[in-house]
Amino acid sequence: MNVKLIGYTSNPEKLPAMAATLTHSKIKPENLNKLSEKEQSAVLEQVIKLRHTSVIEHASFTFAISDVSRSLTHQLVRHRIASFSQQSQRYVNLNEPNYVVPPSISKNKKTKKAYDDTMETIWNHYNTLLEMKIPAEDARYVLPNATQTNIMVTMNARSLLNFFELRCCLHAQWEIRMLANKMLREAKKVAPRIFQHAGPSCQTKRICLEKKKDCPLYPK
Ligand SMILES: Cc1cc2nc3c(=O)[nH]c(=O)nc-3n(C[C@H](O)[C@H](O)[C@H](O)COP(=O)(O)OP(=O)(O)OC[C@H]3O[C@@H](n4cnc5c(N)ncnc54)[C@H](O)[C@@H]3O)c2cc1C
């Protein structure tokens, strides 16, 4: 899995700080860009603490994500407050077997072999259908959830906080959790004040949405 932050609002913390200050000030928004770093920090800390997070919607982040499974992207695109562009299985011919192997399968030689054999059989059938002049858009019906894919996603900071709360949680599946943690690391580099406390709800709110008392992170 590769995850790269390839674009973001040029000043992702200053704009939300200006927006927050505007709401409690007579100063016109165009004159708010003189906010010091200290003032920006203080106002951002306050809005995040109070969950007045509409102001952080002014900052957007775009991630390039490659070599993930279709299972993962199916979960990812359920996040509606986002924009997506994904490699098409209608227009891209996927004749080479490229697939994700879950760790629970790869750790055992026997299960790994059974899995690889299944993938080989599936791709043989896919290629046979293409040879029989079935269009790629129909031949793809035999491809598995494991099929590798590439996707770009843009989310604003508020939507990302929600995404991290749900998907950094140990209850989320390993692949999307890995993605969420990588995205969080990238986002923190450019907007450390917005994302400093981001993560699963047990970290952000000290509550477990899943009520999983056997989870090692279950809040004491
Ligand atoms: C551990 C886990 C297990 C899951 N299992 C399943 C499952 O078995 N089956 C399944 O179908 N899904 C499942 N999901 C997906 C889940 O139900 C959500 O669809 C997904 O996490 C997106 O979350 P979201 O709606 O908060 O995000 P977004 O769609 O980005 O929405 C963000 C927020 O905007 C608001 N919002 C967005 N759209 C609306 C709307 N139409 N009306 C009102 N408010 C809105 C809500 O406050 C929402 O939290 C699972 C998710 C997780 C994390």
Tell me briefly what this model is.
With 220 residues, the chain is an alpha+beta fold.
Descriptive report:
This protein has about 220 residues and is of the alpha+beta class. Helix content is about 45%, strand content about 15%. The chain contains ten helices and four strands, in the order βααβαβαααβαααα. It has a four-stranded antiparallel β-sheet with strand order 1-2-4-3. Helix 7 (about 155-165) packs antiparallel against helix 8 (about 175-190). The chain is elongated. The two termini are about 35 Å apart. The structure holds flavin-adenine dinucleotide (FAD). Flavin-adenine dinucleotide binds next to helix 7. Flavin-adenine dinucleotide binds near residues 81 and 162.
What's the helix and strand layout?
Layout: E1 2-8, H1 14-23, H2 37-50, E2 60-69, H3 70-76, E3 83-86, H4 103-106, H5 109-131, H6 136-139, E4 148-156, H7 157-167, H8 174-190, H9 192-195, H10 201-204
Antiparallel strand pairs: 1-2, 2-4, 3-4
The structure holds flavin-adenine dinucleotide.
Order of helices and strands: EHHEHEHHHEHHHH
Average pLDDT across residues? 94
Radius of gyration: 22 Å
**Largest sheet entry:** 4 strands, antiparallel
Shape label: elongated
Q: Estimate the helix proportion, in percent.
A: 40-55%
Structural class: alpha+beta
Counted beta strands = 4
Count of alpha/pi helices: 10
* Fraction in beta strands: 5-15%
**Ligands bound to this protein structure:** flavin-adenine dinucleotide
Lateral strand order in the biggest sheet = 1-2-4-3
Poorly predicted ranges: none
First and last CA, distance: 33 Å
